[in-house]
């Protein structure tokens, strides 16, 4: 074995050279890796004894892509294109031996090899779109030449990782093998290619698949139309489509040039910067500085849940899906039956859509033990409370759980607004208490705010974070404060949205501005969906807010066919002239003059106070880092990922500009816009939230 450089080795096995890359964690194509391939290839090609080359990786995966940390930095080492040309134009066959994931630049590297062999567990994909990019190393030109434009369109715009068996069916992979024998099988395969004098196959020279689609623009038009909703707001999907069009319509070299131009445009744009930022933010969020790998994790095997309402049922499903036995406790048989019925209906629904087999539904339901007896939670390792949002009820329950739960059990609350420290104090073991703030619907929403109480023990935190990963959530550790991080910031937007309509903007104006910004829906459409009567009681209603007035008129939201909007039978929303009049009357009664509110003002007033609240949260240490807040907003509230999240969005605009806007609105509308000291400080220093 000869070391080519720190990350590349060359071994010559009689007539076959094996070029092996070892650059943890994912063998990304850094300058060192590219140099290693170039120099290793040069040596293998110069050795007359070598008849073919196998390109293989050490560690958990084949090359998982370009090194994202190098984007935007001055170029170093050989370019990927240079290395690729060396392989593709080599006079000896080169075989890629794939395990783990061949992604992005990694798959593009494999695509210039003359043959590809992969383990059955391997996956291939071009996920650049998720970074706001497109495959910039020939992927958009070579992929459709193998799999055809239809499959290529789907792969590059979704970024899906395709299983090796499917890749083999599509022709992306020539041979499937096992993990243990990959290297030996690849060497044997290369030897066979040499012995049989098989051609040096170059994907770039295939034309039949793309020729079949040539002169058929309707293919692309139909794809754009069918996916318009999915792609809304994003630049990258459209750019990817244009590249596949180029692959079909242009000669290879011209297509490659087009790909390069479009790649560069995306790379220099704000969307890709935001999406690449988010890629790292969504990995960073799992790191808790003072709860490291040296903190022991607790064993969690059995789950207890108290309350089988909206949240309890959804939370239970998360654990059932991951194979945990769950005991769910209710206070009445009726509530228990209702809760169980909902869980089953949810599963049946998924099965009906073909996403779960009937056997899986039964297996999951069989893991669930429904009961009215709290005592059955005595052997649970984690108990999550999802009872009414009432401090006395929760305190009483924690007192009981304290007496029932075994030593070492974690006691969690799903409260959305109550003080976790006060709840913890109701038990004699506050160190075992933590907040697990799931979002509704809990079986669907990715976000989990893990709430650290003043006394929560570190192993409890570590265990909660690990468990969150196991059940497929994105977890962010937050501190105790009203609304925690997400809802605390949301409250700012809700308040301004309500004030905006009293100033003269209509609910659909506010919703449209936020929808166009990239949210899935605006605050008023959201209220209609959730129901305006959440927490509303007719007897206590005094028409003191717009929401109360609408509830009193039985305009309780979508379910009532009317809320801020009017709804038809298909639940399509239409602006309501009735609501418009109600708002005018209500505003007049409050002595407010209606005026024209600009779209810019709507956006500023909805977004800037949220960012300002984020600054306060950071200053108080209720979030570990600004990027955690961004992860919370992308996963819990539909913040468009191509804008990164509220905090990086503010950084992108410039904190001086955000501050100036806050001051301007403070002068007009008062204390709701008082700038956070941290915002003032950072703006004065020319720093960003990301610098903290
Ligand atoms: N560049 C740099 N670092 C990368 C990387 C990449 N392409 N891919 C992963 N990493 C880093 C992660 O940031 C993480 O670092 P950390 O440990 O310091 O947090 C570490 O590698 C491990 O990553 P994950 O936590 O994501 O590990 P998993 O095992 O869960 O997943 C993976 C592995 C599926 C490979 C996943 O990391 C992944 O999807 N990576 C990105 C793949 C990708 O997008 N490739 C395309 C890149 S762009 C490109 O190739 C452009 C080209 O067309 C020119
Ligand atoms: P819910 O009213 O739908 O369900 C609560 C259930 O708890 C009811 O079925 C009730 O019978 C049961 N219950 C009450 N006291 C009990 C006791 N002592 N023992 C056993 N069962 C008892 O309420 P929901 O919406 O599920 O909320 C539960 C908790 O989750 C609340 O703390 C809420 O703030 C929080 N939450 C709610 C969200 C939502 O969108 N609904 C989102 C995030 C958190």
Summarize this structure briefly:
The chain is an alpha/beta fold and 692 residues long. The protein has 29 helices and 20 strands.
List the helices and strands and how they pair.
Layout: E1 2-5, E2 8-13, E3 16-21, H1 31-46, E4 52-57, H2 80-88, E5 94-98, E6 101-103, H3 105-112, E7 115-119, E8 123-125, H4 139-147, H5 149-158, E9 162-163, H6 164-170, E10 175-177, H7 182-195, H8 208-211, H9 217-226, H10 228-231, H11 236-249, H12 252-267, H13 270-284, E11 303-306, H14 310-321, E12 326-329, H15 333-352, H16 358-366, E13 368-371, E14 382-385, H17 391-404, E15 410-413, H18 420-425, E16 433-438, E17 447-452, H19 458-470, E18 474-479, H20 486-503, H21 507-517, H22 523-530, H23 546-552, E19 565-567, E20 573-575, H24 577-589, H25 599-619, H26 626-637, H27 646-653, H28 655-669, H29 677-685
Parallel strand pairs: 3-4, 4-5, 5-7, 6-8, 7-10, 11-12, 11-14, 12-13, 14-15, 15-16, 17-18
Antiparallel strand pairs: 1-2, 2-3, 8-9, 16-17, 19-20
Helix pairs in contact: 1-2, 2-3, 4-5, 4-11, 5-11, 11-12, 13-26, 14-15, 20-25, 21-25, 25-28, 27-28, 28-29
Bound molecules: 3-hydroxybutanoyl-coenzyme A and 1,4-dihydronicotinamide adenine dinucleotide.
Protein name: 3-hydroxyacyl-CoA dehydrogenase
GO molecular function: (3S)-3-hydroxyacyl-CoA dehydrogenase (NAD+) activity; enoyl-CoA hydratase activity; isomerase activity; NAD+ binding
Domain 3-hydroxyacyl-CoA dehydrogenase C-terminal: 483-567, 602-687
């Amino acid at each position: 074995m000869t070391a080519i450089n720190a990350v590349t080795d060359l071994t010559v096995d009689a007539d076959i050279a094996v070029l092996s890359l070892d650059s943890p964690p994912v063998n990304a194509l850094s300058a060192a890796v590219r140099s290693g391939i170039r120099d290793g290839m040069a040596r293998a090609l110069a050795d007359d004894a070598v008849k073919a080359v196998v390109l293989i990786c050490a560690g958990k995966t084949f090359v998982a892509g370009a090194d994202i940390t190098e984007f935007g930095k001055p170029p170093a080492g050989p370019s990927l294109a240079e290395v690729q040309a060396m392989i593709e134009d080599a006079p000896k066959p080169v075989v890629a031996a794939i395990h783990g994931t061949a992604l992005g630049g990694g798959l593009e590297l494999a695509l210039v090899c003359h043959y590809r062999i992969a383990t059955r567990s391997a996956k291939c994909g071009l996920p650049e779109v998720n970074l706001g990019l497109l495959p910039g190393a020939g992927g958009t030109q070579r992929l459709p030449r193998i799999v055809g434009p239809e499959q290529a369109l789907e792969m590059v715009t979704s970024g899906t990782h395709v299983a090796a068996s499917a890749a083999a069916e599509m022709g992306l992979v020539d041979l499937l093998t096992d993990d243990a024998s990959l290297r030996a099988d690849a060497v044997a395969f290369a030897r066979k290619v040499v012995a049989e004098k098989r051609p040096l196959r170059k994907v770039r020279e295939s034309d039949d698949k793309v020729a079949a689609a040539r002169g058929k623009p309707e293919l692309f038009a139909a794809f754009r139309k069918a996916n318009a909703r999915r792609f809304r707001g994003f630049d990258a999907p459209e750019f990817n489509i244009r590249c596949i069009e180029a692959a079909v319509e242009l000669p290879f070299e011209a297509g490659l040039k087009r790909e390069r131009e479009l790649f560069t445009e995306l790379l220099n744009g704000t969307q890709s910067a935001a999406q690449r930022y988010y890629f790292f933010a969504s990995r960073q969020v799992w790191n808790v500085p003072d709860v490291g790998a040296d903190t022991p994790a607790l064993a969690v095997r059995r789950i207890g849940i108290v309350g089988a309402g909206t949240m309890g049922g959804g939370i239970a499903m998360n654990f059932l899906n991951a194979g945990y036995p769950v005991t769910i406790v209710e206070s009445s048989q009726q509530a228990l039956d209702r809760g169980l019925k909902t869980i089953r209906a949810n599963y049946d629904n998924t099965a009906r859509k073909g996403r779960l087999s009937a056997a899986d539904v039964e297996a999951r339901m069989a893991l669930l033990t429904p009961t009215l007896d709290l005592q059955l939670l005595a052997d649970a390792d984690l108990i999550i409370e999802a009872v009414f949002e009432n401090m006395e009820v929760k305190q009483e329950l924690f007192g009981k759980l304290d007496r029932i739960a075994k030593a070492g059990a974690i006691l969690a609350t799903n409260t959305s607004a109550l003080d976790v420290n006060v709840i913890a104090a109701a038990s004699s073991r506050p160190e075992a208490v933590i907040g697990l703030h799931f979002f509704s619907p809990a079986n669907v929403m990715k976000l989990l705010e893990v709430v650290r109480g003043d006394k929560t023990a570190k192993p409890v935190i570590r265990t909660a974070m690990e468990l969150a990963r196991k059940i497929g959530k994105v977890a962010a550790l937050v501190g105790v404060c009203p609304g925690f991080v997400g809802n605390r910031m949301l409250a700012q937007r809700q308040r301004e949205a309500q004030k905006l309509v009293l100033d003269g903007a209509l609910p659909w104006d506010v919703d449209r501005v936020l929808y166009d910004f990239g949210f899935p829906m605006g605050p008023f459409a959201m209220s209609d969906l959730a129901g305006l009567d959440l927490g509303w009681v007719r007897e206590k209603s005094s028409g003191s807010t717009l929401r109360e007035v609408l509830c009193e008129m039985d305009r309780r939201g979508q379910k009532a066919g009317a809320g801020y909007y009017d709804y038809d039978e298909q639940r399509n929303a239409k602006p309501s002239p009735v609501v418009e009049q109600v708002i005018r009357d209500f505003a007049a009664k409050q002595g407010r003059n209606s005026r024209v509110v600009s779209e810019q003002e709507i956006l500023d007033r909805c977004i800037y106070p949220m960012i300002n609240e984020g600054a306060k949260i950071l200053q108080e240490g209720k979030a570990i880092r600004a990027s955690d807040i961004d992860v919370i907003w992308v996963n819990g509230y539909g913040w468009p990922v191509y804008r990164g999240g509220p905090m990086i969005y503010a950084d992108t605009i410039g904190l001086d500009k955000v501050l100036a806007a806050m001051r301007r609105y403070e002068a007009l509308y008062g204390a709701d816009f008082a700038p956070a000291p941290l915002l003032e400080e950072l703006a004065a220093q020319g720093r960003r939230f990301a610098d903290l």
